[in-house]
């Protein structure tokens, strides 16, 4: 089981596999069991955004155990959280914000 951090700019936290694009993140979700998933929304000009990853999760049913949103895009976070909340099974923990800082 792996933890995945989707971001094209920020450094990847320790203990996570970095996906720099929505496509990379979707491939990891497709081929690995994901424990924690932390999503950014904006992934570069002309690139698919984090919502494409959430749509893949909903369509495929390949949910992580927990999902966090470290994006600075308020509207992007709202869209991703809303879509996941509507469709995720009850056991999936959806956090409307970033992971807590390690102490």
Automatic annotation (TrEMBL):
Pfam families in the record: cREC_REC
Domain Cyclic-phosphate processing Receiver: residue ranges: 2-85
Presence of the UniProt keyword Cell cycle in the record: yes
InterPro entries cross-referenced by the UniProt entry: cREC_REC (IPR046909)
Domain of life assignment: Bacteria
GO process annotations (BP): cell division
Annotated keywords: Cell cycle, Cell division
Protein name: Cell division protein FtsJ
Organism of derivation: Paenibacillus montanisoli
Source organism phylogeny: Bacteria, Bacillati, Bacillota, Bacilli, Bacillales
């Amino acid at each position: 089981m792996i933890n995945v951090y989707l971001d094209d700019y920020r450094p990847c936290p320790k203990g996570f596999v970095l996906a720099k694009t929505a496509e990379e993140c979707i491939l990891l979700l497709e081929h690995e069991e994901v424990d924690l998933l932390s999503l950014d929304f904006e992934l570069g000009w002309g690139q698919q955004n984090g919502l494409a990853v959430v749509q893949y999760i909903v369509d495929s049913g390949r949910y992580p155990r927990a999902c966090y949103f470290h994006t600075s895009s308020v509207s992007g976070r709202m869209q991703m959280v809303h879509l996941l909340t509507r469709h995720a099974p009850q056991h999936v923990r959806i956090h409307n914000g970033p992971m807590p800082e390690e102490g």
